[in-house]
Known about the structure:
- Keywords: Metal-binding, Oxidoreductase, Zinc.
- By secondary structure, this protein is α/β, with parallel strands linked by helices.
- Helices cover 25% and strands 26% of the residues.
- It has helices at residues 52-58, 108-111, 159-162, 168-178, 195-206, 221-227, 239-244, 263-268, 290-295, 307-319, 334-342, 354-357; strands at 12-19, 26-33, 40-50, 75-82, 94-97, 100-102, 122-123, 142-146, 151-152, 187-191, 210-215, 232-235, 249-254, 269-277, 298-301, 326-329, 349-352.
- Helix 4 (168-178) crosses helix 5 (195-206).
Amino acid sequence: MAEKSHQEGHPTKAFGWAARDHSGVLSPFNFSRRATGEKDVAFKVLFCGVCHSDLHMIKNEWGISSYPVVPGHEIVGQVTEVGSKVEKFKVGDKVGVGYMIGSCHSCDSCHDDLENYCPEVILTSGGKYHDGTTTYGGFSDIMVADEHYAVRIPENLPLDSGAPLLCAGITVYSPLRFYGLDKPGMHVGVVGLGGLGHVAVKFAKAMGLKVTVISTSLKKKEEALEHLGAHSFLVSRDPDQMQAAAGTMDGIIDTVSAAHPLFPLLGLLKTQGKLVLVGAPVKPLELPVFPLIMGRKIVGGSSIGGMKETQEMIDFAAENNITADVEVIPMDYVNTAFERLAKADVRYRFVIDVGNTLKI
């Protein structure tokens, strides 16, 4: 196992792109990564996905950003160095890091392999690490992470189209499993056919579910049925279609991050059906209680997944040939990519070719 001099406490020079203020414009940025600790892996970043939450962070739309912000939490690369007590990885391994990079390890959530719900969870980008430093994400040349928060990337999973699974993939996989919407033959709706939604369709199909894509217009019907292989397509603004589908779904995964009505979706659920929200609208949604009471229906939420489940998801994806549909871009295109992402002009995930295009 290779251990270099900075193992003993010397930070590593790093280079990436960062936003300096709420304008969200990114530009080249020099900074330091912490020294590789005894349980850490250091890796060369090869690809990094561009997530909608990156857009929120660089513009401080959630009010939690601390500048400069180096975005990126769908990160894959190759291990260049391991600490003396690392057990899971060796130099040369393919590795991934998702939305979180630390937690307290002592709360109930951490003990239950649900580090993502730890009150002290540390975000990969824009968080505060144990030593008080700000965490910088994957729009950079190198990463250092505790091995607990890194996942093994199977050899047969492409790195570019596999990277978004570390956020988008686990965000939809976890609720399908937790809410019991993973039994073959069940009928599940997917609201929104974007970065999250298109991956939700793929995971649901691989689990043997009947999948209906729910969208506001016919624009994505052919894409949903012909390309992604959904079983049916429903226009949520068409009262006749919605009435015909009423009471037919065991569950719905709602991926939409803009304000939208929940009442029509609740009508699609069977008795005891479950509507699970994984999008993150900035403004509160209106929740009608009457249909919940009359059908014993549940509205729930879900946020990524714990590290054990994230590894399970990546392995499941590799076994079932599930990847995201991506547009690979160079690093210097990232500002244009964010402008397009804000207009939903991407099919369905931008991925930065960091390894080949990040120039110092």
